[in-house]
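Fold in tokens:
===
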Amino acid sequence: MSTRRVVFLVIAAAAPMAAISGNAPLALVRGNGISLPAAYILAAAVLLCFAVGYSAMSSRVVNDGAFYVFVARGLGKQAGVATAYIAALGYLSLAVGMAAVFGYFTSLVFAQSGVDVPWGVFTAAGVVVVAAFGHRSADVSARFLGILMALEFAVLLVLDVLVVGHKGGAAFPAESFSAGQLFGGSLGIALMFAFTSFVGFESAALYGEETGDPVRSIPRALYISVTSIAVFYVLTAWIVIGGAGGTAAPERARKDLGNLVFTLAQQYGGTVLLDACAVLLCMSVLASWIALHNAASRYLFALGWEQVAPRALGRYHPVHQSPHIGSTVVTAVTVGVVGVMGLAGADPYETIAAAVVGLGTLSIVLVQACTALAVALFFRGRGDRRPFSGVVAPVVGALGLGTAFVLASTNYETLTGSDNVIVNAVPLLIAVTAAAGVAAALRLRSRRPLAYTQLAGTKNRHRPDRRTPDERPAYTRRYCVVGAGPSGMIMARNLLREGVPFDWYERSPDFGGIWDPDFAGSPMYDSCHFISSKYTSGFYGAPMPAHFPDYPRWREIRDYIRDFGRQYDLHRHVRFSTEVTSAEPIADDRWRVTLSDGTVREYDGLVCCPGVTWHPNEVTLPGQEVFRGTIRHSVTFRDGLEFRGKRVLIVGAGNSGVDIACDAARHAETAYLSVRRGYRFVPKHVAGLPTDALLTGKLDPPKGVVLSSDVNAMLDSLVGDLTRFGLPAPDHDALSSHPIMNTQVLHHLAHGDLVARPDIARLTETGVVFADGSEAEVDEILLATGYEYRMPFLDQGLLEWKHGHPQLYLNVFSRELDSLYVLGFVEFADAAYKRFDEMAQLIMIDINARETGVRKDELAGLKRTDTPDLRGGVKYVDSPRHTNYVERSTYMAYLAQFRDRFGWHDVDDHTYDGLRADAPAGTSPASPASPASSDSSTSPTSSNRTSEPPKEPTHV
């Protein structure tokens, strides 16, 4: 979509005929009289300032469609939810007001034709039409809006020309811009009507996201839209005032009210122009009504989806994919408010529309004021803040919008023309609504901390690395990279790209890490598959091949990893079959590294990528000294045929444990699975599609399939009651433990091929006594009890450890040693390789700071003192495995904020194109580092175990 098309859609949606015909008469009567054009200019100036700040923030933060997201980013989540509530109230009020306006003007049009029909009949008919559009979430087509806009502009311009032709210079009364007129009436009410005419201009930012370059398109579309609309409104309102008698215009408007533009059209253009105005006005109001109804429905949907309103509002229609429940609520409120007020005798235009549209406009103006303030606070302290766009413009916008809100609120009785205390107290609904929003946010924080953490989540706009090789520092410090599993390969690729000298060591003879079962110590077994699908897995720049199955087998993963090494020519930079036997810190934040061949080298930094599934956690079972059968760890398991003819007990229900239990169910004479607590089992497919790809939005659900935002409810409905299979009921929320991506185990339990048992009480000579007193005779016990985090080449005392896990800042940085980094020691419910690359950027930021000295002290301070909650408020299961567990979205957001804070680039599928083995000559972004293999006799060398994401072999 082009910027020109965005501007076209925004101006078309502004409905100029409805704005001039509907707003101008009331503004003349209840505002500041003939100074309405000046009010338009003031409103436009304020909104342009708002647009400058809004655009500046949009260039840093992706705008996903709602003001409240920006407010939450700048002012906090509670303020964000309060703003969302106010915005929903605003759009709902405007939709209700348009129902009355539509009935009123359509009744006038028919009355001019001699047909007297009550306005309520037309409003009722409009409700049916609008409800049908809302149920399908169907907006009026862009083509229809374009035609309508062209006709509206044409008719109003014809009226302008005719008035100017008749009145000459009198069509432009100079008094409209005099100070006496500007401040002689109610400027606040006039501004409110002016702002009403601009409602919807912010959609330029939303449409702008669909352009090829949102960073440029959004500000251009906003500025052009506001300016174009303002020029048209100022000129047309000025000419309408001149045509209506200049200073006598307010009195004529009081007499004609909604008929003002109609009577002017007939006076200056005759019946043809009158009829054109009448038809276009009705169509314009209906189109605006539909747009506002859908906007209100979508806001209610967002509140339900964010779990700060009844969750039913967050459900979408299985066929139309529309917020149909929200739409139904908007329809019901419209019928209720208009119906009650209409039956009470309220005038649809002077009372209902004035009061309700006024409330809606006040709400939107307040939301925009909060957004402008949020923009100013967002840029506070940022290095990329510009004085005008980051400070002056948003502050002026906030003050201007806030002043307009205060003036309109304090003169609300002038707007309604009523002395009814209840009617004039309507603006208090905004305060009540805001309080309700804050209460909803606090309630969510208390009851669903993870949902609160994810509430109003924002994503920084992608920042590619636009530096040329000459703009990068000339790195002189040399680093040692230990391990060439996936995390080590990711780290090496980053160092190569940046031009950082390094040596890289790996104790195995090739890439592959744990996925190579031929390498001693690999925990791989024949039935092992990835537990994340090919859609979410893979390295940046190297997606998994399309011909791979949804969940690739270990052979495919091994070959994929090796092919990744070939694609980026990584073999030239690693020294295989060389192990780092020790690494010790020395003076000046340097390291002395000893290799398996006896070579000793010194480095400026140490990057450890050792992997986490090399050191089995071999537990001791009560009474195992008397057991005459076999006890072994799952690291020794290779094939289910090993169980043939045996009675086998699998201990542990992690991903590898349930995989092996399924092998035992197929091959063993008798198979048991011992579990200590309740687990949640996640199916790998939902509606025939990979579960992770659906939940992360990589794939859209099939038509007719509705996914619940409540993961517990979704899993319970898909899996059912686990106690039927002899398993204990889950003792935790779905997201508070590592996911077990396996439901085949339930199949075997349901068919009796596998028998569930509780924890082990003790062993006997020939079997097991379980915690519930039951017994079983077994020949072999296989311990699927996970793996320990170890770095044998480091003195364990160099780091602080907790439950077997090193306590690292952001799971990457040593807090004790400034030049020590660890990549891969982290647990989360997500595919790992892309996350590892994002973690590697933290190391690159620190390496850059060490080399340049820029913000080095700030980074060192964060390592010492920053303790962010990376769990997103989730209370994970109390187990050693979950000691350093992080909540995926919370962790990703913090890493993104860290990169943004230090002005570091983001990573995407094209970041490393210049490093590809087949890249054209001269495209490498940095000079190559000296590989360890290029001069093994003189370059520092180190190695250790391969790095691999998870603790379980199937976790990626």
Notes: The first strand starts at residue 479 and ends at 482.
